[in-house]
Write a structure and sequence with these properties.
39% of the residues lie in helices and 16% in strands. The protein has a 7-stranded parallel beta sheet, covered by helices on one side. A two-stranded antiparallel ribbon has the order 1-2. Strands 6-7 form a two-stranded antiparallel sheet. The protein starts with 14 loop residues before the first strand and ends with a helix. Keywords: Oxidoreductase.
């Protein structure tokens, strides 16, 4: 039997503690892509989806992010099949988007609907308490206090441990915090999509976890003559890996959740945790990314 390193690749990303009691390795896994085309229906290869989840855990990933709307329901069901009873894992899910077809996402923040979806997620995931339950979108047709307030009731009933928000701005975060502690926010953010920078800065100041979705977009930066490709060659890495390394260096509250339906792609993503950018490399990429996003 060969000796194994005591540290898994994902551990190299460092840790973050959600809500003061859930410590996770910062590089997690987003489970949207283990569904069908258009995030609709079952995946083309369910066995591979199960393998991806199990391999992620082997690589040290202990933060899995999903949503009732992925499939819908398919992602949660596969997570339960692959990973239940989740020893040492934090499974985060969301509610607040209605699905009526492939690539169709309709905000629905009716408190009764949010409660229903939480109850159904509990059943699909096979748990009594959801570690992190996120409001997937703020629905402007219902008062924010009613939407977040329903999650507070579910937390008080022991069905939710911590509450997070998705796609909010600084003012919405502050308004929600008047109602209850918020442990995480999840917004689109990557090297070239930086609109959520004010929210990231606010989260960092307050010790709120920031979960960037769509973390790998880099566009022209990844072109053969672009700075990302050049730097990647120096690190013997891929542009995607450097994009993740940049996110991890950007802020200690950053929790990237790259997703994939392929074990090989998963292994490549998680290996990014072991790449350390110098301050100069970080600033070079930051400046190049800002140019693309402006």
């Amino acid at each position: 039997m060969t000796a194994q390193s005591s540290q898994t690749p994902a551990q190299a990303s460092g840790t973050f503690t959600l809500g003061g009691d859930l410590t996770v390795n910062r590089l997690g896994f987003g489970a949207m892509r283990i569904t069908g085309k258009g995030v609709w229906g079952p995946p083309a290869d369910r066995d591979e989806a199960v393998r991806v989840l199990r391999r992620a855990v082997e690589l040290g990933v202990n933060f899995i992010d999903t949503a009732d709307s992925y499939g819908p329901y398919v992602s949660e069901e596969i997570i339960c099949e692959a990973l239940h009873p989740y020893r040492g894992l934090v499974i985060a899910t969301k509610a607040g988007l209605l699905r009526t077809g492939p690539d169709v996402w309709v905000p629905l923040g009716n408190p009764t609907y949010l409660r229903q979806e939480c109850e159904m997620s509990l059943r699909r995931l096979g748990v009594d308490t959801i570690d992190l339950f996120q409001l997937h979108r703020v629905d402007r047709n219902f008062p924010l206090e009613d939407q977040v307030g329903e999650l507070v009731k579910l937390r008080d009933e022991g069905k939710i441990r911590h509450i997070g928000l998705s796609e909010v701005d600084v003012d919405q975060l502050a308004a929600a915090q008047q109602i209850t502690p918020i442990v995480s926010v999840q917004n689109m953010y990557n090297l070239t999509a930086r609109d959520a920078e004010p929210l990231l800065d606010a989260a960092a100041e307050q010790g709120v976890g920031f979960i960037p979705w769509f973390p790998l977009a880099a566009g022209p930066l990844a072109a053969p003559d672009g700075p990302l490709q050049q730097m990647a060659a120096e690190h013997q890495a891929t542009p995607a890996q450097l994009s993740l390394a940049w996110l991890l260096k950007r802020s200690p509250v950053m929790l990237p959740i790259p997703g994939t339906s392929s074990v090989a792609h998963l292994e490549e993503n998680v290996a990014a945790a072991e790449i350390t950018l110098s301050d100069e490399e970080f600033e070079t990429l930051s400046a190049a990314g800002a140019q693309q996003s402006s």
